[in-house]
Amino acid sequence: MEHFEDGLPLYFLNNRMEFPPVEAANEDGLLAVGGDLSMERLLLAYKNGIFPWFNDDSLILWWSPDPRMVLFPKKLKISKSMRKVLRDDSFVLTQNTCFEKVMELCGKVERSGQDGTWITLEMKVAYVNLHNAGWAKSYEVWENGELVGGLYGVDLGHVFCGESMFSLKPNASKYAFIKMAQELEQKGYGLIDCQVHTDHLESLGAELIPRKRFIDILRSKN
Predict the structure, then answer these.
(1) At 156, is the secondary structure helix, strand, or coil?
(2) 61 and 115 share a domain?
(3) How confident is the model at residue 5 (pLDDT cuts 50, 70, 90)?
(4) How far apart are CA 36 and CA 39, in angstroms?
(5) Domain check: are 111 and 185 in the same one?
(6) What pLDDT is stored for residue 8 in this prediction?
(7) Which residue, of 35, 66, 97, is where some domain finishes?
(8) Within its chain, how far is the Cα of 131 from the centroid?
(9) What is the bridge-based pairing of β-strands 191-195 and 68-71?
(10) Region of residue 157 (left: phi > 0; alpha: psi -120 to 50; beta: else)
(11) Confidence of residue 194 (pLDDT cuts 50, 70, 90)
């Protein structure tokens, strides 16, 4: 363990497959630095409420924010305009047909107030490995045979940990999110992890809950 300049603890990971307790995260949610993006470490992280988020020029940073932004599927909000989109059937939803392409577009498509540069080559390789092993999944939205939106994340079987989404056409990512949430509600999932607050997610029914409550739900079926 070393320290920030302001005296807060900063945990540096080594080759051991372990993380400090999430309560050790600073007020921004930063918990640890370093380690690797091996499948074993990533799954250990997600199962304990921790996720990686870093830029190309940074060491691997591990986060566990408090409070945590989540969506309870039964609390999904669908606006009148989105209900019309759902009825129109102009979009077609698929799953896991082009995971790598979804990741690529999540990193390239500009979004207001967000920076996609954190989806580094190292991250892409790691999550494709998770996908090939059945842990990471994508939802794709098509219009007239063209990929126009989608999202991806890590599926723990009772909690879906959302990572990123993109839209090339208005409402395409909302369509993917809504359809996914409806499916997960039917399957009895406890929640969708949205990680941190955005107005976009809040408009869909996501809310902030204490990290302890999130961890309790996460560990309920591990």
Answers:
(1) coil
(2) no
(3) very low
(4) 9
(5) yes
(6) 59
(7) 66
(8) 14
(9) antiparallel
(10) left
(11) very high
